């Protein structure tokens, strides 16, 4: 799904140029795997790599923003946020707001061969990505008293609600559930809920419901199949997305897509840096590879996307090459080599 306005895509001589931001932790090694697999699959994408880490200067960050604006599309790892450093706002959140990437889409699907409490999971989480609790306006008004502003606007609530209903319509989905805490945050979440209700009236063919966020977390782990498309404000989105990723097998599998009117950024769904597993050849490369496939679909390179995602799915579900996070004993490189083997086999068989 892309926004209504065509994206400016950088393309020279039939090849696309995409910004690559490896980020901290396992980001750089995962990007190496993406490059390697793209080479074997003959993907016509050139990466313009700009490394932003937690220690990068403001200049480098600005350069990365300009680069994404020029290319229209980026593949991104997660940049560590410095806890406790009040003068440093999260680069990840700032990047999303600066590019106005207002919609985060996480498609949560289970894999038949990955241990999962519920088979056949198929949920789509749509998260408002630019405001709410992430407005980054906090201050200590008097010593020991901190105020943190949560900003909910009708405009941003309306566009994310529309995004969710349009997504449901285009993907043949039957239900949208708005997630909120309007019983406590009566004015802010009240506005979000009211706006979703109003948008729902324009889509009578799609069922609409709403649920309080705490109940949602409980329902997700006990009866997840009741959900189809879910739409929610920013902070609930990150919490509920992580619950959904956990249900489907953890941080190593699912991808997340960020869209605005003009730009798109693709990344692993849980946005972890995975610092504790970096450099050990144990990180699951699948979430980043799925993000790369989302990016190829977005660029219209659907045959290449299918070639690689079929190879990923065969590696997980038929060849059973699994890293430790999903209960296996294989290394990151075992997974990557198997995906390359499946890509080469499919190309030899002329399956695409
Ligand atoms: P940390 O910085 O301690 O690694 P994160 O919040 O980045 O923490 O990640 C949460 C947990 O998920 C950690 O245990 C991390 O090792 C794990 N993790 C994140 N990404 C992956 C991955 N791609 N493969 C395997 N484990 C991962």
From TrEMBL:
UniProt keywords, alphabetically: Mitochondrion, Transit peptide, Tricarboxylic acid cycle
Membrane-spanning intervals of the chain: none
A single Gene Ontology CC term: mitochondrion
Transit peptide recorded as keyword: yes
A biological process term (GO) from this entry: tricarboxylic acid cycle
Subcellular compartments: Mitochondrion
Keyword Protein biosynthesis part of the UniProt annotation: no
Gene Ontology terms, MF aspect: magnesium ion binding; NAD binding; oxidoreductase activity, acting on the CH-OH group of donors, NAD or NADP as acceptor
Chain ranges of the Isopropylmalate dehydrogenase-like domain: 17-339
Primary site of residence: mitochondrion
Domain of life, source organism: Eukaryota
Family affiliation: Belongs to the isocitrate and isopropylmalate dehydrogenases family.
Protein's recorded name: Isocitrate dehydrogenase [NAD] subunit, mitochondrial
Species in which this protein is naturally found: Chionoecetes opilio (Atlantic snow crab)
Full protein segment contained here: 73 to 424 of 424
């Amino acid at each position: 799904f892309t926004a209504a306005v065509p994206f400016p895509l950088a393309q020279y001589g039939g090849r696309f140029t995409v910004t690559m931001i490896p980020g901290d932790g396992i980001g750089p090694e995962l990007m190496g795997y993406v490059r390697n697999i793209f080479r074997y699959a003959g993907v016509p994408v050139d990466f313009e790599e700009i490394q932003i880490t937690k220690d990068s200067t403001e200049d480098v960050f600005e350069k990365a923003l300009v680069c994404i604006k020029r290319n229209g599309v980026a593949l991104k790892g997660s940049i560590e946020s410095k806890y406790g450093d009040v003068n440093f706002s999260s680069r990840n959140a700032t990047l999303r707001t600066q590019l106005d990437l207002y919609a985060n889409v996480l498609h949560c699907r289970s894999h038949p061969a990955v241990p999962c409490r519920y088979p056949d999971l198929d949920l789509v989480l749509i998260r408002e990505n630019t405001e709410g609790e992430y407005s980054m306006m906090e201050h200590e008004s008097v010593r020991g008293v901190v105020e943190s502003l949560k900003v909910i606007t009708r405009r941003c609530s309306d566009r994310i609600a529309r995004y969710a209903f349009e997504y449901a319509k285009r993907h043949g989905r039957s239900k949208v559930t708005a997630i909120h805490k309007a019983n406590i945050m009566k004015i802010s979440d009240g506005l979000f809920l009211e706006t979703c209700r109003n948008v729902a009236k324009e889509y009578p063919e799609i069922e609409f419901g709403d649920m309080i966020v705490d109940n949602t977390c409980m329902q997700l782990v006990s009866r997840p199949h009741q959900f189809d498309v879910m739409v929610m404000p920013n902070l609930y989105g990150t919490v509920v997305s992580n619950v959904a990723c956990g249900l489907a097998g953890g941080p190593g599998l699912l991808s997340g897509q960020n869209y605005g009117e003009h730009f798109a950024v693709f990344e692993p769904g849980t946005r972890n840096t995975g610092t504790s597993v970096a450099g050990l050849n144990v990180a699951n490369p699948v979430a980043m590879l799925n993000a790369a496939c989302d990016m190829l679909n977005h660029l219209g390179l659907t045959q290449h996307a299918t070639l690689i995602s079929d190879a990923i799915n065969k590696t997980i579900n038929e060849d059973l090459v699994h890293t430790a996070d999903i209960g296996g004993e294989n290394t990151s490189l075992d997974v990557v080599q198997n995906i390359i083997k499946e890509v080469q086999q499919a190309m030899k068989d002329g399956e695409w």
